[in-house]
Design brief:
The structure holds 2 protein chains of 2 kinds. Helix content of chain A is 60%, strand content 0%. By secondary structure, chain A is mainly α. Among the domains of chain A are: 155 residues, no CATH class; 147 residues, no CATH class; 31 residues, no CATH class. Chain A is elongated and about 110 Å long. The termini of chain A are far apart. Chain B is an all-alpha fold. Among the domains of chain B are: 56 residues; 137 residues, no CATH class; 26 residues, no CATH class; 168 residues, no CATH class. In chain B, the strands form 2 sheets. Chain B has a two-stranded antiparallel ribbon with strand order 1-2. In chain B, strands 3-4 form a two-stranded antiparallel ribbon. Chain B is elongated and about 190 Å long. The chains are: A mainly alpha, B mainly alpha. At the A-B interface, helix 18, helix 21, helix 22, helix 24 and helix 25 of A face helix 16, helix 22, helix 23, helix 24 and helix 25 of B. Strand 1 of chain A pairs parallel with strand 5 of chain B, so a sheet runs across the interface.
């Protein structure tokens, strides 16, 4: 590239001239700046390097600064920033482009500079693992800057830039064990989210990496990057932010929405193949419907993962449910025995789970149809009402209005709250007198539980719940069903804490009632002959 | 074009046969002969009338033509249409005629006829004979006379025709008749005569019998002269009057007798009371003025020394001035009555509690409360006040009455506690003395049997204080050097400062003394001080329980009882104090309660009615406990012990209202699961959330001897041996708790479902290796409880019927079709608001009437003007006529004279 080289000549000359003046300047300022001000010093060095080729060796000094770190941390950062400027300038000036004749003096210098660039990059990557957040952030910015500069000035192919070059290294460092989470977050926030090409290649890198077996921490880190991607591409013309200039070809992959999605899908699919911990699985499931599934060209691919998660049981199943629902709703997925699975989720923990409100929102949607068989609906009602016998008040207040709504929608289920036994007896005279509850709690098929022949004694019992509001809510099933439906949202997000807060926040408007009888004994036993009965506490506990 | 008026008239005349071809003479003659002529004339007249009407366009007014057919027979004006046509001429004529009959007559009469009307009975009745008229008048007069008097007016009857003086007749008729009286009456009437009022009575009596006699006599002689009817009527009247007099007199007599008797009884009553009390009756506080004054007067009259009596008099006067106004004392009630009253009071309180438990609205509460408190204190004043409240019971009223009631109670409680808790201290400190025990229980019995202080006791404040001194003297602290006065602490730091120097056992005594020193009755700002002190006490019990050196529970108990009695005066302050404790517990350590929290919750159990449907303190307290039970996953035995304590408390809270607590069932199950010795088979856990509790909680070794759970088990820090015995104790307690739960909830409809798992667990516990490591007492109780549970389960299963919750009357389907109005009239207002509709109806009527009246008045005025004009015209024409006549007369005369003169003149000329 003679043109470029020749083009560079005048610049060099100029720089040389500059350098003279710079030198003179430096000779004047150097003595007093030497000790106290590292900034001054670093700036001086930078000037020198840019001034003349002969001063290229100062790059070494700066690199040393970076490498040393430690006590002179500030200096290291200054040096790093300065070097970045230096290399950017040099790259822009074409000083790093390989000359045509390999043997020439120029070539040696370029080679040398490239090696230094490598050193510098390594140094920065190391800085990326620094303890100080500020320095990490700076290092990340510098690295990305270098990526950009290299891509624009070094005439590398796309592959070279993204797959093998600095970006690859940067990426590997980012997902490595021990990498601070905030740097990853910053990376995602500043680059992946902003620039379509960065995101595209990030997904590509992730897919590459995930195709191999990864150690546990790396999986976690990868997940954190993957899950942090919030943007969902919808339109082709959204693809216009490119970190490294728009690609030259008009039909480039970067312009294609499908290609982007494919890349994301690949990354996710590769990732989901790893063995995940429960927490990871849960967090993925959490993101499933709004972050992951929309990226997928073929959401059916997620079905395996979701089914596996659903089969795990417990809260994981709960969370898989919303993903499944997304597929059913948006992708018209057919899921065999869905209601049976759903029914199996109604276990002892469900009303105690922290995902209770989420589950009920879904359950409400699933059972919203009025075309469901009454036997099935009755099974759900009965099962949940059985569970309320052991549920916290916050759970009960969800279940009862929900049952009300279902009974309102499925009038044939109202036999569960009102059954004229005389009429029934006439019908089935042949059958022996029923004993107990016809409901089969252990039956897994909701169509076979005979719940519709049972009654909701449980809710009736809860009408004497200790909490006044719960008791009042439980009474709605024995009043006239005049209300069209209860808004379930009003009942979902309660807990002991919120209920207690609600109670204790209220001002006392009326003086509280006081027990009129002052008991003789509270902790002590009554005398034998006194005729008073000891309280339960006194009977069972000894106070001494 | 219609034919002309004249043509039409002619044709109609012809049609009616009024005009026609001339009849021949012969025909006419014949017609007149058989009367046809006359008939035809009538006919003709009628026909002519018809024609006249027909051709008079003003005689008949056809109603404006209806634009469309309407179903209603009412016109737009709302009045019923009378036929299709109206005859304004006729109606006008009628009106005119009416006026002529009434108004004209009045007009003509004006200034000519006087206003006196003859309204004598029968005067205008031509059918009556003069005798009948006279009789009628007489009867009427008599009736009027007998009607007017009042019930107790004894001398109203017939004095209108007789003058009396002092009831003595002035007519001097037969004074010997006085004796004509029945003897029994006479006997008493002597007394009566003394006051001169009833003097008239015998007189009247006499007069009555007098008339009787005369009438009888007259009956003999002139039975045939007088008409039968007259005599009997008068007779009846007189008899009636006489009887009523007699009755009246007898009633009065009986009343007086009763009064006398009552007075006599009243006099004897104090002695009777004294007898009943069995104590010699004290001299009445303020001697009756009569009794005391009379001897003085006597003495004075008897000529006692003047100076001495004066002195005595002055002394008495001073005494009287100094004397407190006599207060009505409360009646001392006999024992049964007291019990009865107490029983009703308790019953009412219980009813109130039940109402609160059912969560019914409390609008009648204040009233009931007042009623109850009316029973507390003295009867009558309270009752009166209550009546006032009944009229206008506002918030203030309620408050006042509450305070009234409470004050009594409070006083009493102090007095009682001063002794009772003092003695308890003795009991706990030293060897318990039976004497003290008896006394305390006696006092406490009094507290709840005798009810609350009556005014009498309130008056004896000094007494209560002296009692207080003795009580204190008896238990003057552990060190015996307690001070008698303390500052009233207002913050918890103050309390700590005050109690720094004293032994913990003396704390209740100190509290008593503070309460006595700052009793609200002693100073007005004491109430506020005590209020603060009460809240500080709440802080203090929790503080005490949290201290590492565990305080004696006797002290805590005494303090809680103090708080309880203070709570009756300061319910809001203490409620708030407890609530703020709960808040701290809830916000800072909801799953790690301190012993202080446990004590606070225990105190709530005794101070507040825990059976209420909603209670500002109890409801959050329940939530706090169930939150712990539901959310804390126990890791250590202490956690389990705390949970167990909470369960115990929960059950105690629900001992009356028997409300279901799911968390308790869960916790019991989890604890049994965790504790049960040996590996349990993996069974389906049912619908309760199963925590995998740590293995270390499992009862491992064969059981050591059982013990009772101790309160301080909730704090960690025991060695292994103790741990094992604690596990056993926990199991024991849980079995007891299950037993209690069965008692509480066996009647609930879903009892089988809720307890089935517990039963399975108990069965497991009673089998195999698990059973082996339990000791005998546990085994026994386990066996009993599981038997009991089994029975209850079976029974509940058998009894249970399908729910029938919707036996409501079916709801009417809501309709949105407007109500169809038969014969709807757009002029009518179908106002759903009855009152408004009626009002507007009335207004419309008023308007219509006013219009009509105005119209009538205008017509009247027109008529009067017309009439007066006519009269004037008549008068004028008469005058004119007269004038003309006179003029003509004069002229005639003049003319004649003139003629005469002419004649004379001519004659004279002629003669000449």
């Amino acid at each position: 590239m003679p043109g470029i080289v020749s083009g560079l000549e005048p610049g060099k000359k100029r720089k040389r001239k500059d350098e003279v003046s710079g030198n003179s300047k430096k000779s004047r300022t150097a003595p007093k700046a030497r000790e106290p001000d590292p900034q001054e010093e670093v700036l001086g060095l930078e000037q020198k390097i840019l001034g003349s080729r002969t001063n290229y060796n100062s790059i070494h000094t700066l690199l040393d600064h970076i490498r040393v770190g430690g006590s002179a941390e500030e200096k290291a950062m200054l040096a790093a920033v300065a070097l970045c400027r230096v290399f950017c300038r040099l790259m822009a000036a074409g000083n790093l482009n390989k000359p045509q004749d390999k043997a020439s003096n120029e070539a040696t210098i370029v080679q040398w500079l490239r090696e230094r660039l490598q050193d510098y990059e390594n140094g920065l990557l190391k800085l990326l693992k620094d303890e100080d957040a500020g320095r990490r952030s700076t290092a990340l910015t510098l690295l990305m800057r270098l990526v950009k500069e290299e891509a624009t000035h070094l005439n590398k192919s796309e592959e070279a830039i993204w797959r093998d070059g600095l970006f690859e290294k940067l990426f590997r460092t980012l997902v490595e064990d021990g990498m601070a989470a905030d740097t990853r977050a910053e990376f995602v926030e500043k680059y992946v989210e902003e620039y379509d090409d960065v995101r595209y290649y990030t997904f590509a890198r992730l897919a590459d990496m995930s195709s191999k077996d990864l150690p546990e921490p790396v999986v976690q880190n990868t997940l954190s990057i993957l899950s942090a991607v919030e943007t969902i591409l919808e339109q082709q013309d959204e693809l216009e932010d490119f970190y490294i200039g728009p690609p030259s070809k008009a039909k480039h992959d970067l312009y294609s929405l499908t290609a982007h999605k494919k890349q994301a899908q690949k990354a996710w699919m590769a990732f989901l193949r790893h063995t995940l911990t429960k927490a990871q699985r849960k967090s993925i499931l959490n993101l499933m419907s709004h972050r992951i599934a929309p990226w997928f060209l073929k959401p059916e691919l997620l079905l395996d993962f979701l089914t596996d998660s659903f089969n795990i049981g417990g809260s994981t199943s709960l969370m898989a449910l919303s993903g499944l629902f997304y597929l059913i709703q948006h992708k018209n997925l057919d899921y065999p025995q869905f209601y049976q699975k759903l029914y199996s989720l109604l276990d002892a923990q469900i009303l105690h789970s922290k995902h209770r409100s989420r589950f009920f929102r879904l359950l409400d949607t699933f059972l919203a149809s009025t075309h469901l068989p009454a036997a099935l609906v009755a099974s759900f009602i009965k099962r949940l009402s059985r569970l309320t016998l052991h549920a916290p008040p916050s759970g009960i207040v969800v279940v009862v209005p929900w049952i009300y709504n279902l009974l309102k929608n499925h009038p044939s289920c109202t036999f569960m709250i009102h059954r004229n036994s005389e009429l029934d007896k006439d019908e089935d005279q042949g059958r022996p007198e029923r004993h107990g509850d016809p409901f089969r709690i252990w039956e897994s098929d909701p169509m076979e539980t005979h719940a519709i022949e049972s009654s909701l004694w449980e809710i009736h019992m809860l009408q004497t719940h200790y909490h006044p509001s719960v008791a009042t809510i439980a009474k709605i099933i024995s009043e006239q069903f005049t209300k069209q439906a209860y808004k379930l949202e009003d009942f979902l997000d309660h807990s002991y804490g919120t209920m207690l807060d609600a109670e204790l926040e209220k001002d006392i408007k009326k003086a509280p009632e006081i027990e009129y009888e002052i008991p003789k004994k509270i902790f002590m036993k009554h005398e034998v002959g006194s005729g008073k009965e000891d309280g339960l506490v006194v009977k069972l506990w000894s106070f001494s | 074009m219609p034919p002309s008026q004249l043509k039409r008239l002619k044709t109609s005349l012809r049609q009616q046969g009024v005009v026609g071809p001339q009849k021949s003479k012969k025909q006419r003659k014949q017609a007149s002969k058989n009367g046809a002529l006359k008939e035809s004339r009538i006919q003709r007249n009628a026909a002519l009338q018809g024609i006249r009407e027909q051709f008079n366009p003003f005689e008949v007014k056809a109603a404006s033509k209806a634009k469309y057919e309407i179903a209603s027979n009412k016109t737009m004006g709302g009045r019923v249409a009378k036929g299709a046509i109206s005859r304004p001429g006729v109606t006008k004529g009628l009106g005119e005629e009416n006026r002529r009959k009434t108004l004209l007559v009045e007009m003509q009469r004006r200034k000519k006829v006087g206003g006196i009307l003859d309204r004598r009975f029968g005067e205008n009745d031509p059918t009556m004979t003069p005798e009948e008229k006279a009789l009628e008048r007489f009867v009427k007069e008599k009736q009027r006379g007998s009607k007017k008097g009042s019930l107790f007016d004894l001398e109203d009857a017939d004095e209108d025709d007789e003058l009396t003086h002092f009831g003595q007749s002035l007519s001097f008729d037969r004074p010997d008749k006085v004796d004509d009286f029945n003897e029994a009456d006479l006997g008493r009437s002597d007394e009566d005569r003394a006051d001169g009022f009833l003097e008239g009575r015998p007189q009247k009596r006499r007069r009555l019998s007098d008339t009787d006699a005369t009438s009888e006599a007259s009956l003999d002689e002139g039975a045939n002269i007088r008409p039968e009817i007259r005599k009997s009527k008068k007779e009846v009247m007189e008899e009636v009057i006489a009887k009523s007099k007699l009755r009246k007199y007898e009633r009065q007599q009986a009343k007086e007798d009763d009064d006398d008797l009552r007075a006599e009884l009243d006099n004897g009553l104090p002695d009777l009371y004294a007898l009943m009390r069995g104590t010699p009756r004290q001299a009445p506080p303020s001697p009756a003025p009569n009794a005391s004054m009379n001897p003085d007067r006597l003495a004075l009259l008897n000529g006692k020394e003047r100076s001495q009596t004066d002195k005595e008099y002055d002394e008495r006067l001073r005494q009287m001035a100094m004397d407190q106004r006599a207060k009505p004392t409360t009646r001392t009630l006999p024992e049964e009555e007291k019990l009865q009253q107490e029983a009703t009071r308790l019953k009412e309180l219980e009813e109130q509690r039940l109402r609160r438990m059912r969560g019914e609205p409390e609008e009648s509460d204040s009233e009931a409360k007042e009623k109850v408190q009316g029973l507390n204190g003295d009867e009558d004043p309270e009752r009166d006040e209550e009546d006032n409240f009944g009229l206008g019971s506002g918030l203030a009223g309620e408050r006042q009455s509450r305070e009234l009631g409470v004050e009594d109670e409070d006083e009493f409680v102090i007095e009682d506690n001063l002794i009772a808790s003092g003695s308890e201290l003795e009991m706990s400190d030293a060897d318990e003395s039976d004497e003290a025990d008896d006394e305390s229980s006696d006092d406490d019995d009094q507290e709840f049997v005798q009810g609350l202080l009556s005014k009498e006791d309130a008056g004896r404040e000094g007494l209560s204080f002296s009692k207080d001194e003795t009580g204190v003297a008896r238990a003057n602290g552990a060190t015996g050097d307690l001070a008698y006065t303390y500052r009233c602490p207002e913050t918890h730091d103050d309390v700590l400062e005050v109690t720094k120097a004293i032994a913990i056992e003396d704390l209740p005594t100190v509290v008593q003394r503070i309460r006595a020193l700052y009793h609200p009755k002693l100073s007005s700002d004491n109430k506020a001080k005590l209020g603060k002190f009460a809240t500080v006490l709440v802080d203090h019990i929790s503080y005490l329980a949290n201290q590492p050196e565990h305080p004696s529970f006797a002290v805590l108990e005494a303090l809680i009882r103090h708080i309880h009695s203070l709570a009756k005066t300061f319910p809001e302050e203490i409620g708030c104090a407890f609530r703020s404790h709960l808040k701290v517990f809830h916000e800072e350590r909801s799953t790690a309660p301190t012993p202080g929290d446990l004590i606070i919750l225990t105190a709530i159990a005794s101070i507040f009615p825990t059976s209420d449907h909603f209670h500002q303190v109890v409801t959050p307290a329940m939530l706090c406990m169930t939150r712990y039970l539901g959310q804390k996953i126990p890791q250590t035995l202490c956690d389990l012990a705390t949970g167990t304590y909470f369960i115990t408390l929960c059950l105690q809270y629900q001992r009356l209202s028997k409300r279901y607590i799911p968390e308790v069932v869960n916790h019991v199950l989890n604890t049994l699961w965790a504790l049960s010795p040996g590996r349990t088979k993996q069974t389906r856990t049912g619908s309760f959330p199963h925590h995998g509790l740590p293995e270390s909680l499992r009862l491992s070794s064969a059981s050591p001897e059982s013990r009772q759970l101790d309160f301080w088990d909730v704090i960690p820090g025991q060695d292994d041996d103790a741990n094992e015995s604690l596990k056993i104790a926990l199991i024991d307690t849980h079995i007891a708790l299950v037993d209690k739960m069965i008692d509480l909830w066996a009647d609930k409809s879903a009892f089988c479902e809720a307890f089935a798992t517990i039963y399975i667990k108990l069965q497991q516990l009673g089998q195999g290796s698990a059973f082996g490591s339990l000791n005998t007492t546990t085994r026994k109780s386990l066996h009993e409880t599981s038997e009991k549970l089994n029975q209850h389960l079976q029974r509940s299963m058998a009894v249970r019927a399908p729910l029938r919750l919707h036996n409501h009357r079916p709801l009417a389907i809501k309709t949105s079709i407007p109500k169809f109005e038969e014969s709807y009239n757009p002029d009518k207002h179908y106002d759903p608001d009855r009152d408004r509709a009626e009002l507007s109806k009335l207004k419309a009527e008023h308007k219509r009437e006013q219009k009509g009246a105005l119209k009538e008045l205008r017509k009247d005025a027109n008529f009067i003007a017309r009439e007066s004009l006519r009269e004037k015209k008549e008068r004028d024409s008469a005058y004119e006529k007269k004038y003309k006549r006179l003029v003509a007369e004069i002229q005639g005369e003049e003319g004649r004279e003139a003629k005469n003169y002419e004649r004379e003149k001519r004659m004279r000329k002629g003669r000449k």
